[in-house]
Design brief:
- The protein is elongated.
- It has two domains: 226 residues, Alpha-Beta Complex (Spore Coat Polysaccharide Biosynthesis Protein SpsA, Chain A); 64 residues.
- The protein is built from ten helices and seven strands.
- It is of the alpha/beta class.
- Helix content is 49%, strand content 12%.
- Helix 5 packs parallel to helix 8 and helix 9 runs antiparallel to helix 10.
- The longest helix is centred in the last third of the chain and has 29 residues.
- It has a seven-stranded mixed beta sheet, sandwiched between helices.
- The structure holds uridine-5'-diphosphate and magnesium ion.
- Magnesium ion (MG) binds next to loops.
């Protein structure tokens, strides 16, 4: 199979028939063999009925329905699990992403050897204050922290080589950072394509302002896990040792000063600071140690992504 299209959706019953018609047209015009995986993220409207009808009419259409709303990342993750195509393309259900981009995205993965190609909504049709400006800030931060030169991390339209989606796990609100997760998994040929963006015709946006707070927290988790996830002691041990050592030295100095009657212990702020750093240091150190123990017991501690093997067994 050439292409799997994964569509996460939540209350999009008005858009779905138009989207399906458009996708089918593009696929047929280009003679692709394909499947469309519609992942209903617990919709409360008639989205699932629409999906059932589409699947009955065309066997290329498949659907999964969540019992409740888990979020876009969960929907994508389940779609990735089922995808069988050589190239997997994700697309929003609200008709803001154009299926006409699919053939070129497919070509970039197949012929130019990209692992991942992300859409770039160079001209956006969303509200300026709620979306465009915050998203510029978000993209700049993610670019700096991850070292990936993309303009638009959060674009719903993306294409992947199948290996990539089978090797990564997306949860929480991590869908915004799939390029970062992919890079961390060792897929570094990441490209970008300017894509058409359209106004939302039906329904309303599902993401409010709180996505920025959660978004930044998720970025921090990702960076932390990728750097120290397998060796927490390298972080906590280092910070803990510095803090503990600092506390210890300063405590010794304070005690010497006290013994030579220069200061009074209880009235010296240095005494309290020394104690604070000493205790903090020990606690951080122990946290690192606990982290190591947890890692040692984790069932994924020795799971690595293997690209190639030459084993004459
Ligand atoms: N979506 C989802 N689960 C959610 C929220 C959104 O599957 O909890 C889907 C939504 O139906 C759409 C896509 O994710 O297909 C992008 O959402 P939306 O268009 O609301 O985001 P925006 O374009 O406004 O950033
Ligand atoms: Mg949208």
């Amino acid at each position: 199979m050439d292409i799997s299209i994964v569509v996460p959706l939540f209350n999009e019953d008005e858009s779905l028939p138009h989207l399906a018609e458009w996708i089918t047209r593009v696929m047929n015009e280009n003679n692709f063999t394909y499947e469309v995986l519609m992942i209903d993220d617990g919709s409360k409207d008639h989205s699932w009925e629409v999906i059932e009808r589409l699947a009955a009419e065309n066997p290329c259409y498949k659907g999964v329905k969540f019992r409740r709303n888990y979020g876009k990342s969960a929907a994508l993750n389940v779609g990735f699990g089922h995808a069988q195509g050589d190239v997997v393309i994700t697309m929003d259900a609200d008709l803001q992403d154009s299926p006409d981009e699919v053939p070129e995205l497919y070509r970039m993965i197949k012929e130019e050897g990209y692992d991942l190609v992300s859409g770039w909504k160079k001209k956006r049709y969303d509200s300026k204050i709620a979306k465009n400006i915050p998203s510029k800030l978000f993209n700049a931060t993610t670019r700096r922290m991850s070292g990936i030169k993309l303009h638009d991390f959060n674009c719903g339209l993306k294409a992947y080589r199948r290996d990539v989606v089978k090797s990564i796990e997306v949860y929480g609100e991590m869908h915004r950072y799939i390029p970062v997760i992919a890079k961390w998994a060792g897929f570094s040929k990441i490209g970008e394509k300017v894509v058409q963006h359209r106004k939302r015709e039906f329904g309303t946006t599902k993401f409010g302002m709180n996505r920025f707070i959660n978004g930044y927290l998720d970025l921090m988790s990702i960076m932390f896990i990728s750097k120290f996830g397998k060796q927490p002691m390298h972080f906590f041990g280092a910070v803990g040792s510095i803090s503990g050592l600092f506390g210890l030295i300063s405590l010794i100095v304070v005690i010497i000063l006290r013994l030579s009657h220069v200061i009074s212990l209880t009235r010296s702020v240095w005494f309290y600071l020394s104690m604070l750093f000493l205790v903090l240091g020990v606690m951080l150190f122990l946290t690192g140690f606990l982290g190591e123990l947890i890692c040692r017991n984790s069932s994924t501690r020795n799971q690595y992504l293997i690209e190639k093997e030459l084993l004459n067994e």
